[in-house]
Design a protein that fits this description.
heterotrimer, B: 98 residues, mainly alpha, 3 helices, 80% helix, C: 629 residues, two-stranded antiparallel sheet, two-stranded antiparallel ribbon, 4 strands, 74% helix, 3% strand
Chain lengths: 492, 98, 629
Amino acid sequence: MTLAQATMIDPPVVSWLGIAPELVLGVGAALVLLIEVQWKPSRTAIAWAGGAAVIAAALLSVLLHARIESGDGISTFLPFAGMIALDGFGVFARYVLLAVAGLGLLAAQRMVQEAGTRAAEMVALMLLATAGFSLMAISANLILTFLGLEIGSISLYVLAGYVRERGNSDEAAIKYFLLGSFASAVFVYGVALVFAGTGNFSIQGVHDYLDGVVVFEPGVILLGLALLVVGLTFKVTAAPFHSWAPDVYQGAPAGVVGFMAAIAKIGGFAGLVRILVSAFPDLAGDWAPVVAAIAAVSMVVGSVLAIVQDDIRRLLAYSGVAHAGFILTGVLSGGEGTAEIWFYLAIYAVQLVAAFAVVAAVSGPSGSRSALSDYAGLAQRQPFLAATFAVILLGMGGIPLTAGFVAKFGVFSDAWAAGHEWVVIVGVLASVVAFFLYLRVIVTMYMDEPAGEAAAAPLGVRWVTSVAVVVTLLFGVFPGPLLDLAGRALPL
Amino acid sequence: MTDWYMLLAAALFTIGAMGILVRRNALVMFMCVELMLNAVNLTLVSAGRALGSLDGQLATFFVLVVAAAEVVIGLAIIVAIFRHRDTASVDELSELKG
Amino acid sequence: MSDFLWLVIALPLAGALFLHFFGRYLREPLAGVFATLAIGAAFVVAVVAAVPFFAGTGEAEHLVIWEWMPAVGATFELQWDPLSALMTLVVTGVGTLIHLFAIGYMHGDERFHRFFTYLNLFAASMLTLVLAGNYAMLFIGWELVGLCSYLLIGFWFTRPSAAAAAKKAFVVNRIGDLGFLIGLMVMFATFGTLSFEGVLGRAATELTVGTATAIGLLFLVGAAGKSAQVPLYVWLPDAMEGPTPVSALIHAATMVTAGVYVVARSSPIYVESPIASGTVAVIGAITALWAASIAIGQRDIKKVLAYSTVSQLGYMFMGVGATAYVAGVFHLMTHAFFKALLFLGAGSVIHAMSDEQDMYKMGGLAKRMPITATTMGIATLAIAGIPPLAGFWSKDEILGALFERGGIYSALWVVGLIGALMTAFYMTRQWVLVFAGRPRWDEGVEPHESPAVMTLPLMALAVLSVVAGFVNTPFRFTLEHFLEPAFHGVEMQHAPEGWGMFLVLAGLSTLAGVAGVAAGWLAYNRPPEVWRRFQEGFGRLWTAWEQAYRIDDLYGAVVVAPGRRLAEFSAFQFDQKVVDGAVNGVGALVYRLGSALRMLQTGYVRNYGAGFAAGLLVVAIWLVVRGMS
């Protein structure tokens, strides 16, 4: 807006329901801290308070979803002066984020118990991270995207270093913090350059600007776009911007790593898809080859590096790099692949939380090491945990009749239809390599001689793995409902 | 005129980025990140001025707030590490690798 | 209409899953009771769903349960017509009785619950096979029953012979499956679909004789493997290593009839190809005679029944090969009753004799085990084709159809008659050796009648063996009308009509049966020295029967040994150098690449930053340069 316009500013439309889930999460975080200070309740009570906030946010999301679908009581789908987008995209993102938050709290159960007086901090940080990435997913403005990204990321930096006195938690935190803020700076510089080139922060505005005119000097915009893409692909751990992920996921306390990895991926992809699909569809010819290259490199590097790992957390981190590549292939088809991306993200996020929950149960919730040899003969020591882990790994590997297969099939067929055949071929080859790495873990669990005793898995972990198994199998066999729901998760 | 401010900002950003690549002291690296954020601020302000829009100036405040939040967390992490390991060199924090 | 039909598969499957996870917490009879209830409930559901067919008002239904991935055309659909209904009723009905029997038979086994897990899993798989609405699903069921069969044959895997038998069944069935799979591919290439509706409905108009022959013969390879026909029958006798209820359920009543079912189901294809149909019938006739002769010389009580099953499956093949599909399916049904009864009876005997299976060491058991003896006697007469028991009607219908068809089929009719004679003989021989005469037991064996949980199924099956034949007599073609909707539009072979022909043909086969029974009785109801001399009188022929023509040795020399040599060659030469080399090469490449990339992961933040910046530069320069030009 110009200076002249600023004097006769319209009061922005306020939609409290539109941001109610985030408000509940933020207020919930504050309340958890206050309750802890005031009443010093049991750690279980604190965890329940956090869970209550997540459940309340989920219920509000359902309500909001119904309102958005019917259009009742919604005067604009871009309230708060166009900062927020009320759309299916944001609603579905919230569902996935809140599911991950709920499962993450369950998985972190034992860590909360061990955290002593700092249990409330941990729960509050998890709520804040969820709120941040949620803001990122519903944002219709690049500045708000940046804010959401930072709220989420800063919470995660602290979580990574949460048990600073133990193992390599502090190393993970400082690496995550330095590289993460580096990437955030890159991202926000991209925002600044896009603003300089288009005069707009709002995603719709950028889109309209590029749509309306022939851009004479697109250099600044393109540079900005490059920085935005790089900043976000860092968050989703796509290669070659992934190098922090294995170190951080290995060093950070196992109890929350699954949550950290999953929630950052969801937020990052939500931001990336929204920006590329909604703001820059006109430059798709320019960014698609870049994304294709990043996807291909991620799939290959992630799979190949995961194969040679001896630590299960590094293995999962590198396989996460490969998964980021797989999901990126869905981005290639522009807006066409949004449903498939969300399907993939939803499935993978749940599997990731559950996989790290198993790691936390086997290798201890606060430690930093989790050698693959710890898992030898797990099937004999903990048959339930081993069986569910095996199903989750098979799902990650994409065996037919698991949701992982449907997810991979979806993004690959989108990319193929969009004319990026070579990426799909690379992806299929990488899936084969990646499959062996999951098989390796399963073989270790089932074929090798047991190595020592393992403590019984906490109830929370059992629940999380059970949910992941149900999700993996149910949506592998009946993908329809979730695909339908994801099919409505389109950005405005 | 504005172009020169933009170029200065780009130079500052690059210096900051180079700092991350070559320095080993966590505190200095962190200052480099702050430098990059300030380069962003300079870009925003000068672009806003060139476009005749207040949005650029407005956004600067958000970036400042984020930078402040990062300072809080960053310094806390660095202090924690310094207490624990008696060093601020990130090169000595390289047990996680491979 | 029958929307709840999926329950038929789901109930035993749920039972299997439940027992898999919680079976170990159930005390002994409970796991068995639970499994029996699961399959019994499936039976009830099937009966309810089949009511319209009994009433004569039902029409073939095609139920799409869910479309897994419509894009790929993978659909889970069920076919509910009289044919699948009949199969379902047999599988669940006989299955329930066998489950019940197994509660008593497996008493004291330390893997009791595991046994019932497999049994329920098998039932679910078999029901998937017979209820499948397309060939893809049928094939899945086909493979699953094979897997369960493998698990159950090798149930007592600590016995080396059981493990070997399981392996043999697995390998031989793979040969058949390969044929079946290729047949499916030809079918898909021809029709572009594997659904029953798409394939069978269009077979009459779109299928050339050549393609029909190709599909028919390839399916026959698969059917011969699963239904133990010449030359792939060798696995079935060995499969008797499994617990006896398994032999009764899988290797007599249900799984082995899958081949017959597939041929009957694919009838629109087979009627298009006289060559394929004729081959089916000839293979069946050869098998019927071949296996019957081997059965004569056996001394293991279960081996007799195994070869008898092979022989009777040959009859069913003759029936469906002569396009007398109703007759073939009819015999399938009656055979399920009396052969399951025979196996269970044998199980009861083995149980009583403390795991003795050698008939030469039995004798005189009728007094100790009256119920088992009576029921097995009924089954023996039924399979021998003595009117008015079940076997008489079904076998007679097959023979009548063969006779009526004429031509080469007349020769098969003669083979069938001779086979009937032999069947009656060896079955009577078995009954007499086991139940009549003086005891020849080993010391310390104290036979006793089995508990009620075992004798009840015997009695139920005995009743069925008596009355089941009446569903389709020349006086009332109830089954024929019942099955009519399933074979709609298929031209079928029937037994000759009219009283005169019926009396002549029935008289001949009855004569064969009575002669066989009489011969068996006269030859064996005497002291052991006498019948031993009788057997020696056959000279080398008897040895050949006793040793099953040493076919296993022949296969060993002709197929297995060269095969092994080939396998060794390919394993140690080709495989190790070429295939392994390639696989290892790729593996090593991946591993080396991974190790090299690992070097980049130094652990230093500034190195990570550098990697990040390098990637950023490449992306930025590429985008800007490309965008500017």
